[in-house]
Specification:
The chain has 95 residues and is mostly helical. It has one domain (3-94). Helices cover 93% and strands 0% of the residues. It has helices at 3-30, 35-94. The longest helix has 60 residues, at 35-94.
Length: 95
């Protein structure tokens, strides 16, 4: 998953949330008696906000894991290089 995909998904989630909030506000102003719609949409907005917060935490976790992966790759490459040097030294000492 690329950072661009994460950004676009986050943007889409925010956009949908704002659309529902705007529609909810319009219904409250024009049809306040439609409590069933108002309650349903308010619940949807709350669920979307929870989803957005969860998504933000997952994004942070993903970025931390990505950094950790890079750190481990560097450690691995250094160890491989060190082993190669040790093998080369051992070969030279045999000669």
């Amino acid at each position: 998953m690329s950072e661009l995909n994460i950004f676009l998904a986050k943007l889409d989630l925010k956009h949908v949330s704002l659309q529902i909030e705007r529609t909810l506000q319009e219904i409250k102003e024009t049809r306040p008696e439609r409590v069933d719609y108002i309650n349903s949409m308010s619940e949807a907005v709350n669920k979307l906000n929870v989803a957005r917060k969860t998504f933000q935490q997952l994004e942070k976790d993903y970025l931390l894991l990505q950094k950790r992966n890079i750190d481990l790759e560097i450690i691995s490459l250094k160890a491989i290089d060190q082993i190669k040097k040790m093998k080369d030294n051992a070969t030279l000492q045999k000669l």
